[in-house]
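Before relying on records like the one below, remember that each one covers exactly one chain. Contacts with other chains, cofactors or solvent are not represented anywhere in the record.
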Amino acid sequence: MLPLFLTSHKAYFGVLAALFAAGFSLCLWFSKQQASLPLLGDYHVYHCDTGGSGKGSFNLLTVSSIFAREIADNLCRAPLMAGHYKSVSISWKPRQQLTAEEVLNEDYDLIWSREHSLRGLVPEYSSYYESLLRYDQYKVFWFSRNDQPQLTREYFRDKKIGLLNDRLSHTFHLLPLASLKQLGVDISLQSLIYFDDASSLYRAFAQGDLDLVSGGLFLEQDLDIPLQRMLIADNVVAATLFVRKARPAEIDCAIATAFDDATAGYFSAHRDFPGAAHCGG
């Protein structure tokens, strides 16, 4: 039975209208609360502050997120960087996403790339950028969680192989595909699974979703699981760092140190840094 004060039609519909208005107002309130939530930043960018008196941001472009944060934090802690820059911003994306306009506009203070890649994009890139540091004589392997990989066509049959969705990546794309081609494997029939970043690739491998991946010796310590390996190539350029010519020359040593400290143990490679003689320590 309805309460006595709702027995009249006028009172009844008045209450319904009040309830509807209250519900509508509540919905508006929730929508405003949701709209005020902070927007998430670009997943492929990490920022840090130097805490110094410098102005502007030092912007880096790398090809992997694996040690991007460590590199940026090392730079932000460097006194020489703090004297010239207020912050450091590091982003990562496949090499083919770098545009000629970004090179010509010098949007990045440092670009992790290879000479042929930059030259193919902007033939006169050397008017804007120069090589600072290179890691070469780097070894790349096939890795398996089960039996040791064999360089035979029969071994790769029905194997699920993880690759990086970066057609310019030697370690995670070009070299493993070249290895398959040399063995006479029909790539069109092979189970190839592509990933947008190395972290996702190796996570899938660690979870058993892939049979094989390629990589450097760092993978053995990163995954901390029993692995078997077979050499693909033993003299690969792991990384070349290109820096803007229009830069404070004194930051070169800070950049080299930041990369060395962040990648220690990752690159079992020869380090070629012509400016090392000018660095203290």
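The chain has two domains: 45-136+239-278, 138-236.
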